[in-house]
Every structure is written in structure tokens, then in C-alpha cells.
Amino acid sequence: MKIYYFAWVRERTGRSDETVTLPEGVTTVAELIDWLKTRGPEFEFAFENERFVRAAVDQQLVSHDTSLKDVNEVAFFPPMTGG
Amino acid sequence: MKIYYFAWVRERTGRSDETVTLPEGVTTVAELIDWLKTRGPEFEFAFENERFVRAAVDQQLVSHDTSLKDVNEVAFFPPMTGG
Amino acid sequence: MKVRIQTEDFDANEECARLADGKNNIGAIVTFTGLCRDEEGRLSALELEHYPGMAEAKIQEIVEQAETRWPLQGVTVIHRVGRINPGANIVLVVTASAHRRAAFEAAEFLMDFLKTSAPFWKKEHLADTKAATETGWVSAQDADDEATKRWQLKE
Amino acid sequence: MKVRIQTEDFDANEECARLADGKNNIGAIVTFTGLCRDEEGRLSALELEHYPGMAEAKIQEIVEQAETRWPLQGVTVIHRVGRINPGANIVLVVTASAHRRAAFEAAEFLMDFLKTSAPFWKKEHLADTKAATETGWVSAQDADDEATKRWQLKE
What we know:
The complex is a heterotetramer, with 2 copies of chain A and 2 copies of chain C. By secondary structure, chain A is of the alpha+beta class. Chain A has helices at residues 7-13, 29-37, 41-46, and strands spanning 2-5, 17-19, 54-57, 60-62, 73-77. Chain A has a 5-stranded mixed sheet. The mean pLDDT of chain A is 96. Chain C has one domain (3-149): Aldehyde Oxidoreductase, domain 3 (Alpha-Beta Complex), CATH 3.90.1170. Helices cover 33% and strands 31% of the residues of chain C. In chain C, strands 1-4-6-2 form a 4-stranded mixed sheet, sandwiched between helices.
């Protein structure tokens, strides 16, 4: 599965994208975040206030309890500030 | 006193402006309209539905009961349709 | 000159550039351009008449009201008069502010009041001259009066 | 192309002309231009980041909502990305309709939703680099969320 990071989430994790294989038991966005946080302090830092991190699943904004079944692409980013 | 006519009021009266000397007893816009209507069928036609004719006194939109005291300029026209 | 009445066409970009010139704190510019519709080919041209003197003063007064009500960094109003062909420009309003809401609201306010309070009149010249039995003067719209009322300040 | 994301600047007049081309029943064109404010010299530049793919799709979706809601004859949305200097353009929305109210409302609706629903992020680069201890990412504004809510359709 492809993961994208934008804005300060990208800066904190130190990467703009990566391809991961989900470990057994990771079936929702929230579980993905929990697992990512075990991968190092940069991920703990990026997700320290999870409620400030928005998630998109296959380019649709979703809540953190959304399932990752058949998902190709997940993205994490702060609230949007365009326009 | 100067009188201006615009849009269909101008077309009906057949003139865009004129200078008149107010006769004794003509002290308000309504009285001016009554007097103008005695001047010929073109004026009767222009003012046949007085409530559709707006009046401005010295370039301020006013009601027909407004006094003509010390007034230099009166204008008659239909409701505005600019913009 | 914030307010202009002219027979010539205008250039919205030029007016925006002029208005923004030397100001770096503008965050939002709204332009409104009113055009002559051809009404599916029914219309041959519009003729715009105005009351010289009063028209300029009245628009100036509306602009000052908008400037009192919203924190604007610039306002331009241009109203054309004379013969205007279908598809051509009639009126331009430009508003600039630090924030978008003020720019949007001020532009709408200006247009609503221009429609109902500034001494301009539109006459239609029809393409089919045989159909032109009416005098051709455009009637004032109740919808425009309603639009104006919504800006009344609450006590 | 109604929706574009690009690093280059845009020309509002050109976009209006393109949108109006061949249509003679447009009575009102509203443009909104969002610019980079210099915040009294505090800002050296803005950097605009976006989520390629999702950004285009999301704007397209907002445009389709506007077209469903108002009788529009044309819509254009251009959002710039990359480094943007104070005074420079960030975003352009153009709406065209037979009547002014639809053009105004649709433009405001598009801007409100662009601000809160399209995946773009702004980072500030400060003129005084010593003051730049903050990360520089612009925070989302509650006022923008409020602005978005007013478009909710009543049941």
C-alpha cells in the first residue's frame, strides 16, 4: 500500500511517500497510525496529536475508523489551508 | 427653474430639458406636475400615471410632496434600471 | 478616479492593476462585470441613458457607504452609457480587501444599489423591428428592490 | 479545462474571455482573485503544497456542486502551487451566469469550499529569518469552517 505525507506531517516523518506492506491486525486508519508510531520517533512526533492529522483513503477524506480493505493509497496531512 | 426629463418621460414630453418660471401657487413637486399637465397632451401623456414617475430635486430623489423653495433643478424619470 | 461614467469599454485587468498598485496587503479582489445579454437573438442593442451629475454623485455616495461598512483597500465603479451591443460590457465593480468576505459583500452591495438607486435607464432596440411596438424601456424589477432591502442595517 | 493547478501565474481577463467565448446570454461575470498579502513586510514568500490527483478531483467535485446549485454558463478555477511572492496571485475563480446573484453566490461558495475541502497547504517564509522559529505552516481558520457551513441546504 502507498502512503503519502503532506505539509508538516511530511516534514516530521521526513518523507513524502513510501510503500508499505500492512502487518497482520492493521485494518483501519487508526490502527495504521498506531503501527506507524512504532516505527520511530519521527512518526511518534508526526502523529503526537492524532486529531490534528487528517486522513484520505484513495483520495477521499475519511475518519480514522475507516477500513483499509482494498485500499491502494492512504494520505496523512494537516487541515487544509488552500484558496 | 431648470427641468430635466429622462427615458420615456423625455420621449413623451418631447424634450430633454427646459427652463420655466413657476406660476404663483406652484410650491411642490406634485403642484409642478399638475401645472405641467395643463401645458398640453404630451405632458398629460408623460404624467398620466404619476406614481410611475420619479422626481429628483437638485439631484436628490424626493417624494412628490417635496417643496420647491430655493430649488434650481427638478428632474422627472421612470424607476431606475442601471447596473 | 473611483467612479467613472463613460461611453468607451473598460478593461477589468487594467482597473484591478490600477487599484492594487503599490498595495501589498490586498488578499482578495472581486470583480463584477455586467454584460448585455442577447436574449436568444431578440435584442439588437441596448441604449443606456443617465442623468449627468446626479449619476456620478449617487454612485460616489454608494461607494462611500460601502467603504464605511467594509474594510476596503480599494473600490472602482465604471458604468457605460450610450449604445451597447449584445455581449458587450455595461458595468464594472472592483473591490479589494484583506479578506474575501468583505470584498464579496461590498461588490454585491454596490451592484444591488447601482441597480435601484443610480439614475440610469436601459432601452432595448429589438432585432425584429416589426415586433417593436412596445416603447422598449426596461422596467424596474421587484427582485432588485428586494435585493437592496437585505442590506438594511438592523437596529 | 475548468480546473487547473499550475505554478505559473494566470490572467483573469484571458480566463473571462475564454469562458464567455461564443456565449451571448451571459449577463454577469464574477471573478475572485486571492493574493499573497505581505503582512506589513513580515512575509518573504508563501509556499503552496498540494496533493496531486486528489486536489484536481476535489475542486472538480466542488465545481459540479456549484453547477448543480446555480444556473451557471461557465466556471473556471485556477489554483497556483509552489513559491508565491507577496502581492502575487494565488487563486482565481470565475463564474458566469445570466443573472448576478447566481454568479456572486457560486463564486463565494467555490471559495469557501476551496479553503476547507481542497488539499492545499500554505507555508510562510518569513522576511526576518531569526523570527522563524515556528514551523511556518498556516493554521486552518475556524472562520473558514463557519463560512462553509452557511451553504448547507436546509432539509
